[in-house]
Specification:
alpha/beta, six-stranded mixed sheet, four-stranded antiparallel sheet, 302 residues, Rossmann fold, 10 strands
Length: 302
């Protein structure tokens, strides 16, 4: 497949993409992909962080088509399916009308919701076979589970999601919690940080709430969670050992062997499943948990 040569915007952010505040400061951090360098800036108002300069759409598309390995999700399907089933149980009572899982990867959550007789479909512009035509006002609920941190323009993304909702619709969002202990203890080496390209943004609760307000949502409810693929037990208390087990899946040469990848995924999944149970027994402030979760309603036209 031919690709246009990607370019990157030359200017650093002058405003926080979360709250819109103009006072941001560069962090002492740098990263690169395919020879292009990136930094991070922090909003001095809401505390959210973002990659700078901003990758353009062609550059991001190349990244997802060449370097984002969807085999990981297929090989770890037992853990991902269990997580999706748990989410479907948690969210069943707030699902209204037809549900769109926007950015839903290979469809874990939409299948789990369908298993509870909730009409749900998935759309992901990058996942193979997960694209569909979307109509304005088609959906009663839009879910975005760990999607917003991947998109270059989160404000426009949420405005587009709002247009897909019916007048009384709602959005259900989950992102890594940039105010949690993962970022505070491990910084950008934390499992859910993933700078500079996989995760472009790192939202604090204040930043995400400000972003939702700017995008036309109201009456948000906020909660914090540990999850199978990021929790205080696996990824803070036992982070070094967890990284070693997780890394088995991607070992050079061996990762080309499907049976090896599945065995490594099984070992990681088994360990993480046990550690999630331990994490949920651990007494920590809710705001330290790995995941920031928000449910908000579509506001009326202004």
């Amino acid at each position: 497949m031919d690709h246009p040569e990607p370019t990157i915007n030359s200017a650093a952010y002058v405003a926080c993409p979360a709250c819109g505040h103009s006072d941001t400061a560069p962090l002492d951090w740098s990263g690169s992909w395919q020879g292009r360098s990136f930094g991070l800036v922090k909003c001095l108002k809401c505390g959210s962080l973002t990659t700078s300069p901003t990758p353009d759409p062609a550059y991001l598309r190349r990244f997802y088509e060449t370097s984002f390995d969807y085999r990981w999700y297929a090989d770890h399907s037992s853990g991902k399916n269990a997580d999706a089933a748990e989410r479907a149980t948690e969210l069943a009572d707030v699902m209204e009308g037809k549900v769109l899982d926007l950015g839903g990867g290979i469809g874990y959550l939409s299948r789990a919701l369908a298993g509870k007789d909730i009409a749900a479909v998935s759309h992901d512009p990058f996942a193979p076979g997960s694209q569909r035509q979307l109509r304005p006002g088609e959906f009663g609920t839009v879910t975005c589970m760990h999607v917003l941190e991947h998109v270059a323009d989160p404000l426009q993304f949420l405005r587009n999601a709002r247009d897909l909702l019916q007048p009384a619709g709602r959005i259900v969002l989950a992102v890594p919690n940039a105010s949690g202990s993962g970022y505070r203890v491990q910084g950008m080496s934390w499992i859910w940080a993933q700078p500079p390209i996989t995760h472009l943004h790192h939202f604090t609760p204040g930043g995400l709430l400000a972003l939702l307000d700017r995008a036309g949502f109201q009456n948000p409810s906020v909660s914090f969670h540990d999850r199978w693929d990021a929790n205080c037990r696996s990824d803070i208390e036992c982070a070094r050992a967890t990284r070693l087990v997780d890394a088995l899946w991607g070992l050079p040469v061996l990762s080309a062997i499907p049976s090896w990848r599945k065995l490594a995924a099984w070992a990681s999944t088994r360990r993480r499943t046990w550690q999630l149970r331990e994490a949920r027994k651990t007494v920590v402030p809710d705001t330290d948990r790995a995941e920031l979760h928000v449910i908000a309603e579509k506001a009326g036209e202004k």
